Automatic annotation (TrEMBL):
<dbReference type="GO" id="GO:0004497">
    <property type="term" value="F:monooxygenase activity"/>
</dbReference>
<keyword id="KW-0560">Oxidoreductase</keyword>
<keyword id="KW-0503">Monooxygenase</keyword>
<feature type="domain" description="FAD-binding">
    <location>
        <begin position="3"/>
        <end position="358"/>
    </location>
</feature>
<dbReference type="InterPro" id="IPR002938">
    <property type="entry name" value="FAD-bd"/>
</dbReference>
<dbReference type="Pfam" id="PF01494">
    <property type="entry name" value="FAD_binding_3"/>
</dbReference>
<dbReference type="GO" id="GO:0071949">
    <property type="term" value="F:FAD binding"/>
</dbReference>
<dbReference type="InterPro" id="IPR044560">
    <property type="entry name" value="MOase"/>
</dbReference>
<comment type="similarity">
    <text>Belongs to the 3-hydroxybenzoate 6-hydroxylase family.</text>
</comment>
<dbReference type="InterPro" id="IPR036188">
    <property type="entry name" value="FAD/NAD-bd_sf"/>
</dbReference>
<protein>
    <submittedName>
        <fullName>Monooxygenase 2-like</fullName>
    </submittedName>
</protein>
Amino acid sequence: MEEVVIVGAGIAGLATAVALDKVGVRALVLERAEGLRATGTAIALFPNAWHALAALGVSDKLASIYEPFFKGYVTDVKTKATQEVRYDASKGSGDEQRVVHRKVLLEVLAEELPPNTIRFSSKLTSIETQVEQGSSVCILALEDGTIIKSKVVIGCDGVHSRIARWLGLGTPVDSGRSGIRGLAVYPQGHGLNHELRQFGDVSKRAGFMPLNNKEIFWFFVCKAPPKDIGADMGGDPNLQRREVADNLAKDFPPLYLDIVGHSDLSTVTWAPLMFRYPWDVILGNLTRANITVAGDAMHPMTPDLGQGGCLALEDAVVLGRHIRSSISKWGELETRDISSTLERYMRERRWRAAMLITASFLSGWVQQDGSSWRTRFLRDIFYKFLLVRVLSASRYNCGKLC
């Protein structure tokens, strides 16, 4: 019997476990993989993420490793015109943004947890609820035959969440675009400034951001190509990298192609860009009885604003704060009102999640879709005036745990 079971040891799952531990609730995290997974290579963390990490007590560990960035450049591949984009923050303001290794973020969160909190190689096969002594209890069956009972279950199991399906949420939809990411390594140093660089062409967008003086995170996003880069190439990262450098991005600047060429092949990944319709988040069943979702299981979105992981960290803090209200004076999790507790959590998260899903999708469309003069004009306006306003949503503070 467990107090809380969290399904998935990604950013949302580990952050939620840390939040619950901070308020005095022990959680068991089930992860189907054999260890922490680092798919995605790197992640941009904006001010809202740093506020959440501060509430979790780990922001200093990461901020001491990674340097913030304050500006970037966007170049039109066809015209070579370049615009400067300034991010509305000053050094030491607390509204900084950094790009960090995803695996380092996971490791920092995992280090905050008590021993044996994470159970690896634990694949969920079924979930059901039943009433015991007047309270709803979740029963989870694992592939190895283990049966676990829990007062609360939180689905943090990603875009294709089994918990989200159990709740009846609609299946995430394909945006019609796909993305390839990787990490370039320069053992002798790359010598580039710590700035975000992006390049745009008709239905294509690419960019890179140094993580430190030897590693650079890069990405390439395009409309789904005629052949499925992920499947038709058998998942071979070398073929995927060559497809970007030799075909899809062949007209992009030599600097970008050189960075792609320096990729550590173990970091190259391809994936379709999925999202959940915002009205599913507003109107759907995000919680039922003592089961709910967080992170990508609730609000998968395109990466155009870099808010997927940031929002997952917010979810963790908000959920931890609400569950804290259900702890008895004896330190036990009361199940009588847990359903209303989870409903309050969802009321706080629904509209913000739906807004950011919509903003991310529209941001991607403006930055990448179409080549008419109207679309190019709108893109210029977006980078000059609208992007900073859109990113103002990233200065949101989800509050403290206690």
